[in-house]
Structure prediction request, 387 residues.
Amino acid sequence: MRFLHTSDWHLGRSLHRVSMLDAQAAFLDHLVATVRERDVDAVLVAGDVYDRAVPPLTAVELFDDALHRLAAVGVPTVMISGNHDSARRLGVGAGLIERAGIHLRTDPAGCDTPVVLADDHGEVACYGLPYLEPALVKDEFKTDKTHHEAVVGAAMDRVRADLATRPAGTRSLVLAHAFVAGGQESDSERDITVGGVAAVPAGVFDGVDYAALGHLHGAQTITERVRYSGSPLAYSFSEASHRKTMWLVDLGAAGEIDAERVDCPVPRPLARLRGRLDDLLDDPALAGHEQSFVEATLTDPVRPADPMARLAERFPYALSLVFEPERAEEDTVASYAERLKGRSDQEIAEDFVAHVRGSGPDERERTVLRGAFDDVRVEISVREVAG
Prediction:
């Protein structure tokens, strides 16, 4: 069986206030064309169909058009909700849509009810694990611990239990939206840390032939059988070096995997430039970036006048300016942004306590801070689910 694994469409998202809707439409054209041209048997969409719980109408219309086109091709499509989606909204009409071959899996309670596909070698059970917010699903899965490893592990136990009841030789797929240990993050993914624990070990997916993952925006191979497709478009300058692709995966008769990356169209490349403004404007080596979306980090010791306007004369698609003035060697004080780079909200808060008090928080205080951050993030998730 041949399937196409994609995720993290984020329909409705913009890049520094520049609409990506046309680029997203071009990607969906490419997706449907790939399904036709490469004899795909099933499409797997591993969450974050939309960029937010209440997407703009234009994004909903684009999604609706994509569903009609995939249904017209006659190839089954399995989709799960991600942490950016409203599972309830995305799942509206799932029973009716399923009759057209579009299988929406947004209810955690149904994670062990597969979409059963078939080819010349027999059946393939395809399970969908929508994004599992631990605080919202711990009762459903009867877990004592409220973190991702516990709830994803409990969901996979149900998957393996159902798979054990099926005929010998039944092959299996699972779609999941999670942060799996070993994956590389970018700036455009929403933090899903719970209780200081975000990562799920890859071994949690043992027992299935292929795990089609969503959430991280870079295409990645965690193991031969556990992969991220990544987002089809770059949604932050941290993704400037990404090669945006989908996975075209052949599942053999005995569950063997052969995977190929299929490139996605690039509407406009991203470039991260660094240097003094005059140098960026004059350097002939930068000519290849003049039609790129540009993030420029200016290192001038003194901020130049009208830097964005001047930059746009050469780079009309410049979107972002960052100022990091060159400093004397003895000046070792990093910029505020530099000090925060790569640090979690919890770490920033602990640093602030240490700064104002002269000593960092003790373990009890760390627990209070962690609980506060978790409560805020869960409240946001609850509002989106209830919205």
About this structure: The first strand starts at residue 2 and ends at 6.
